[in-house]
Amino acid sequence: MAKILLVEDHEEIWDFLSRRLKRRGYEVVLAHDGEEGVMKARTSRPDIILLDMNLPVLDGWSAARALKSDAETARIPIIALTAHAMSGDREKVIQAGCDDYHPKPVDFSKLLTQIGAALGTPPAS
Fold it and tell me: Which residue ranges does the record assign to the Response regulatory domain (predicted)?
């Protein structure tokens, strides 16, 4: 099963998501700020990254740009997780280098569909 790097600083969100993703058979690697996320993307080689955009140390916008500008991590799909759900926000995260966008609060079944699409596989059941 695919390895997911979850970069999220709010404990209730990363706890909820990591437990549910693991139950679906995904391997989950956690990072709690953008700098740690970039480092773990380089060392753990995830198949996909779920990236909160409002992170400490290095925000998600900067982390996405760093990941997409590095030849070692540029091809890893990134799904932005963000509370920003205003008109134009999806375009902003795509411009920052994310491949898809998921507004918070998280709709887990929709997120599974997005993960499957990004990986080119059917969603885990």
Answer: 3-119
